[in-house]
Amino acid sequence: xxxxxxxxxxxxxxxxxxxxxxxxxxxxxxxxxxxxxxxxxxxxxxxxxxxxxxxxxxxxxxxxxxxxxxxxxxxxxxxxxxxxxxxxxxxxxxxxxxxxxxxxxxxxxxxxxxxx
Length: 116
Description:
Strand content: under 5%
Strand order of the largest sheet: 1-2
Helix content: under 10%
Largest sheet: 2 strands, antiparallel
Low-confidence stretches: 93-98
Order of helices and strands: EE
Number of helices: 0
Mean pLDDT: 76
Radius of gyration: 68 Å
């Protein structure tokens, strides 16, 4: 089998296809951005006021002598001319602390209390 040779025609030329190749070369450019930090120290004085309190206690004492005996009370002076420890007339211990004209059991009504 025999094939005849094809006939050659003139070539058709297409537009040129452009291909790009990118090459990167790295350059470092230093940029300096200076910063400054200021630290502020604050001192706070807290003045704490206290009010200490003291407490005083005062006690009042009163004495009351109630005369349930007839006649003046000998330990209260007994009247003019009487000294402490002296007894009024008729108040001698051997007489049972009775005033003249008094018998046991008489005159036991209490007089108004003496306060000082």
